[in-house]
Design goal:
The chain is mainly beta. It has one domain (7-125). 12% of the residues lie in helices and 48% in strands. A hairpin with a 2-residue loop joins strand 3 and strand 4 (60-63). The radius of gyration is 14 Å and the shape is globular.
Length: 127
């Protein structure tokens, strides 16, 4: 059976995620990667986020100032994303990526080197 948290605790936890993203000296990043994304493996594009990185309403963290984009550093099929603080520490991983019905909505999941990868929306919902 899944654990069920009180709504106020969900908000507190999502605020802690947002605070962790913004704790460093610069902007957090969203790393778009293949299904093998882990550390430097499977990275397709790294997109700097706004500072602050997002806002929290209830149990949902929504990334701020989107759309944002960056040139792809590798080619592959986007499948996962990670939110990293300004020092590169992973704050949230396992985010889904797609052109719809995903945590991170991008312009295309088929990515080639040099292609512009654009984040259109990004949300994390506490379960």
């Amino acid at each position: 059976m899944a654990i069920v948290y009180a709504p106020a605790l969900k908000t507190t936890r999502m605020n802690a995620v947002e605070a962790a993203l913004d704790a460093g000296p610069g902007a957090a990043t969203l790393v778009i990667g293949t299904s093998a994304l882990s550390g430097g493996t499977g990275v397709l594009a790294t997109i700097p986020l706004a500072d602050p990185a997002g806002t929290v309403s209830g149990s949902v963290l929504t990334l701020s100032a989107l759309p944002k984009s960056a040139a792809a550093s590798a080619a592959g099929t986007a499948a996962k994303a990670e939110l990293r603080d300004s020092t590169g520490v992973v704050v949230a991983s396992g985010l889904t990526v797609g052109t719809s019905a995903s945590d991170i909505i991008i312009n295309s999941v088929a990515i080639s080197i040099g292609q512009t990868v654009q984040i259109n929306t990004g949300t994390i919902t506490h379960g």
